[in-house]
Amino acid sequence: MSEKILLVDDEKGIIDMLKMALSKNGYSHLYAAYSGEEALNIVEKQPIDLIILDIMLPDMDGFEVCKRIRSKCQTPILFLSAKTTDFDVISGLTLGGDDYIKKPFNPMEVIARIKAITRRQKLENIQKATTFIYEIEGIKVDMKEAVVLINGSSVAMPLKEYELLCFLIKHPNQVFSTAQLHRAVWGELGRGYENTVVVHIRRLRKKIEENPSLPEKLINIRGLGYKFVSKG
Q: Where do the domains of the chain lie, and which CATH numbers do they carry?
């Protein structure tokens, strides 16, 4: 299995049990975190396909971890917790969790839930791949023809500006850090990656914003990153 899975729990025994069960079922790209802060650092530095997240962590609860992750990406999150009230389950799903399993649990149930989530993700990705034309806020991108129209007029763009715009327009109203944008467009982080992203953001704004000095479409969320705004 190629999926990268992050296990977040302060109990080493549970992490080890999940690792064993997942490894036996073909999942080899496994990461472990024993606190909320450690989990957030891994998500920031490493693309993750699915997160198994405990709620009761030593530094912050899993709900807070989920909120912070959701402010940056839509990685599927499966809550795994001894907090079993209906309120806890509803809170976890409302905050952006994709599923919720109560402790104690059967490892095979976790495997089944993971397979269901990843299967659904793959179907969604196939559906997204069949979409070639994106149109938001006066910006139209035809990815099959590699054409960009701003308010009906064709605009030429260098490759990386075009790829950056394509990534952002596919993920409207989501906040991405400079590191996440660099990985999505340029690949692995290199020296000076932050400046590379900032420069391309600045150039892109000159082409898509009415007033690049006061951007309304491609905005900066202080301390978090950048977001392509869609009001519709």
A: 4-128 (3.40.50.2300), 133-228 (1.10.10.10)
